[in-house]
Amino acid sequence: MLYLIGLGLGDAKDITVKGLEVVRRCSRVYLEAYTSVLTVGKEALEEFYGRELILADREDVEQEADSILKDADSSDVAFLVVGDPFGATTHSDLVLRATQLGIPYRLIHNASILNAVGCCGLQVTLPRMCFFVVLTRNVLPFYRLRGDFILVHEL
């Protein structure tokens, strides 16, 4: 079984109880180390989880996914992600590869950057929709200031 486990946004103790239980029983535990900033060191996570973590960089996940998925059909393998597991498309690709190989998977969600929006004084529910703005050209400061003036916020 492949487990994709969200670690939340803070320290080692932000992992869910369910996530921690899974980490402690897995044969291998990978720590994704490139799509988000880890606020604590790998050693702090290893100490709290009681497990050795294998760092997985972009190349490991995108080019060497087979090594992560190796034996996941017969033993439990965990893939830890800062925030929530589906915060990056690479993690979706890992699930698709597992599915193609007949490897079952489970998700254990956690807080992500969208949950932290309230700390900035913004609300995801206003104006009843959440938008992601993808800039396709350089934005001049005038447009940014005008947007701030009319209370348009970007994440």
TrEMBL record:
<dbReference type="InterPro" id="IPR035996">
    <property type="entry name" value="4pyrrol_Methylase_sf"/>
</dbReference>
<dbReference type="InterPro" id="IPR000878">
    <property type="entry name" value="4pyrrol_Mease"/>
</dbReference>
<comment type="function">
    <text>S-adenosyl-L-methionine-dependent methyltransferase that catalyzes four methylations of the modified target histidine residue in translation elongation factor 2 (EF-2), to form an intermediate called diphthine methyl ester. The four successive methylation reactions represent the second step of diphthamide biosynthesis.</text>
</comment>
<dbReference type="InterPro" id="IPR014777">
    <property type="entry name" value="4pyrrole_Mease_sub1"/>
</dbReference>
<dbReference type="GO" id="GO:0141133">
    <property type="term" value="F:diphthine methyl ester synthase activity"/>
</dbReference>
<dbReference type="Pfam" id="PF00590">
    <property type="entry name" value="TP_methylase"/>
</dbReference>
<protein>
    <recommendedName>
        <fullName>diphthine methyl ester synthase</fullName>
        <ecNumber>2.1.1.314</ecNumber>
    </recommendedName>
</protein>
<feature type="domain" description="Tetrapyrrole methylase">
    <location>
        <begin position="1"/>
        <end position="120"/>
    </location>
</feature>
<dbReference type="InterPro" id="IPR004551">
    <property type="entry name" value="Dphthn_synthase"/>
</dbReference>
<dbReference type="GO" id="GO:0017183">
    <property type="term" value="P:protein histidyl modification to diphthamide"/>
</dbReference>
